[in-house]
Amino acid sequence: MDAPSIEPFKVEKSDGSAFPQRLVYNALHADYSEEFVGLPEISEDKAGKIACERLLKGNRGHWGPLEHPSLSLMVKADHNTMMQLRTHRVGCSFDYQSMRYTGERIRKVAKKEIDPAEVFYVRPPGTYWDRQGDKYTWTEEQVEESLAMCLSSAIDYDRLRTQGASEEHARSVLCTGYLQHGLITGSLRFWLHLCDVRSKADAQLEARQIMRGIEFRVQRWVPEIWSWYQLNRHRKALLAP
Ligand SMILES: Cc1cc2nc3c(=O)[nH]c(=O)nc-3n(C[C@H](O)[C@H](O)[C@H](O)COP(=O)(O)OP(=O)(O)OC[C@H]3O[C@@H](n4cnc5c(N)ncnc54)[C@H](O)[C@@H]3O)c2cc1C
């Protein structure tokens, strides 16, 4: 299966446990085994199926063994969505582009060397819902208007930088929809927890978009465990473990 198109967002694998499902299997054996547990001779897919059968089936809540495998993803999304991901604290670590050390792309927008849409995210035209459940139309013209506001903030940023302000000082005048990247490392348990709380059908558009990219990477990494997850928990708004 090809990676889903989530442009202008992006999710790429940076690193990860090479045999994550075998590691989960190893952990569950440490729990149940009388003898010292060595490296198991078992295929990745078989280990994944056994992990589902013995740990996850029936939502038994035996999630501890899922904390051993680790996956690192390089993620790119608008600043607001990146901040929402960063509210998570357990089983994960974040290194984000903080805009204290970078800002050249913003200055290039100000100088009209690159298009504002390459650096700032604005929702595509369409029909959206407000918090009261009422529909509203978001037009192409409004998208262009928002991008013009982003350009204007880039011009203000560039002016401050020219006056000698540092990156960390000038960043405060930017529209918050600027695109930002960051490396997120988490345990398998963390990634599934993230899917529980951020992939819900009623989650905001941007959260759903970035989660499609994340889900694709998790699925490729732990296919058997993902199959169980998808059938039993995915988008079911269950209480997160
Ligand atoms: C739809 C939605 C809207 C949100 N709106 C806002 C908002 O308006 N403002 C805002 O500030 N935040 C908001 N958040 C963030 C939310 O409040 C959580 O802080 C965030 O989602 C982290 O998730 P988590 O609590 O599952 O923690 P994680 O860090 O992902 O932890 C995983 C699990 O570990 C356990 N855990 C973690 N920390 C503790 C602890 N200290 N004590 C006991 N158990 C713990 C819990 O079981 C938790 O579910 C929102 C989140 C969602 C999903």
How would you explain this protein's 3D organization?
The protein folds into two domains: 10-96 and 179-232, Gyrase A, domain 2 (2-Layer Sandwich), CATH 3.30.1360; 104-173, no CATH class. By secondary structure, the protein is of the alpha+beta class. The model has no long low-confidence stretch (mean pLDDT 95). It contains nine helices and six strands. The longest helix is centred in the middle third of the chain and has 23 residues, at 140-162. It has helices at residues 20-32, 44-56, 79-85, 104-110, 140-162, 167-170, 188-198, 205-221, 223-232, and strands at 10-16, 70-78, 92-96, 126-129, 135-138, 179-187. The protein is elongated and about 70 Å long. Flavin-adenine dinucleotide binds next to helix 7.
Number of distinct helices: 9
The level-1 CATH class of the largest domain:
Alpha Beta
Uncertain segments are none
What is the terminal-to-terminal distance? 28 Å
- Count the strands? 6
Order of SSEs: EHHEHEHEEHHEHHH
Strand content: 15-25%
CATH architecture of the largest domain: 2-Layer Sandwich
Mean pLDDT: 95
Mass-distribution shape: elongated
| Major sheet characteristics | 4 strands, antiparallel
CATH topology of the largest domain: Gyrase A, domain 2
Question: Pairing-aware structural class of the strands and helices?
Answer: alpha+beta
Provide the number of structural domains. Answer: 2
Radius of gyration: 21 Å
The bound ligands are: flavin-adenine dinucleotide
Cross-sheet strand order for the largest sheet: 1-2-6-3
Helix content: 40-55%
